[in-house]
Amino acid sequence: MTEKKILFSKDDINSAVSRVAEKISEDYRGGELMMVCVLKGAFVFMSDLIRMIEGVDIFVDFVVLSSYGSSTTTSGEVKVLKDLHSPVEGKDVLVVEDIVDTGITLKFFKDQLLRRKPKSVKICALLDKKERREVEIELDYVGFSMQDGFVVGYGIDCDENYRNLPEIWVLKED
Ligand code: IMP
Ligand code: MG
Q1: For position 25, which CATH number holds?
Q2: Which domain range does residue 94 map to?
Q3: Residue 168 Cβ contacting ligand 1 at under 6 Å
Q4: How many domains does the chain have?
Q5: What's the 93 CA to ligand 2 centre distance in angstroms?
Q6: Annotated catalytic sites, by residue?
Q7: Are strands 2-8 and 168-173 parallel, antiparallel or unpaired?
């Protein structure tokens, strides 16, 4: 049976998202920002985040990246299943992701983006599982750092379940 318990409450999430939004507002004040949501997991975070950013002209786009399978993949191959709609050349781009785990997915995507010659690319992740990193990737904005453990809710799934939960829960096998 799978049990779950709350790791981050609605209030925790609200404070973290508003702290990140404030920092982004400061860093891009008066400019334009193309925010790229990595579907599906980041869609709830993205929608809260954009509404808390002030003084920046925000544009949004969406990508779907394939997951590279499980566990032992260090050579992990990632594919772009749905690419950006708009060109990013010369633009400030902020990639919005739910969770950075091994880092393989985002490292791959950031390298792809950089080839299109944007003005800048930064990364914003709701959850950072730093200790599980297998490739180096700099995260510019982080909601929460966490240890190992599988989380769901607030857009994040386990086999497509639980995305609608307003809190972030940790699943416990027993
Ligand atoms: P990585 O950084 O390339 O290893 O992969 C990150 C992706 O793995 C995230 O975008 C999630 O889709 C998925 N993932 C990692 N940890 C979790 C978790 O705890 N719950 C749900 N998905 C996860
Ligand atoms: Mg994801």
Answers
A1: 3.40.50.2020
A2: 10-68+75-148
A3: no
A4: 1
A5: 18
A6: 101
A7: antiparallel
Is residue 174 situated within a structural domain? no
- With a CB cutoff of 8 Å and minimum separation 6, the contacts of 165 are 152, 153, 154
pTM of the model: 0.95
**Quick check: 94 and 21 in contact, CB under 8 A?**
no
pLDDT, tens digit only, all 174 positions of the chain:
679 999 999 999 999 999 999 999 999 999 999 999 999 999 999 999 999 999 999 999 999 998 765 544 445 679 999 999 999 999 999 999 999 999 999 999 999 999 999 999 999 999 999 999 999 999 999 999 999 899 999 999 999 999 999 999 999 876
* Ligand 1 pocket check for 98: Cβ under 6 Å: yes
Do 5 and 76 contact (CB within 8 A), yes or no?
Answer: no
Q: Atom of ligand 1 at shortest distance to CA of 38?
A: 10
Mutate to test the pocket of ligand 1, among 66, 98, 107 (most ligand atoms within 8 A of CB): 98
Look at residue 165 and tell me if it is in a domain: no
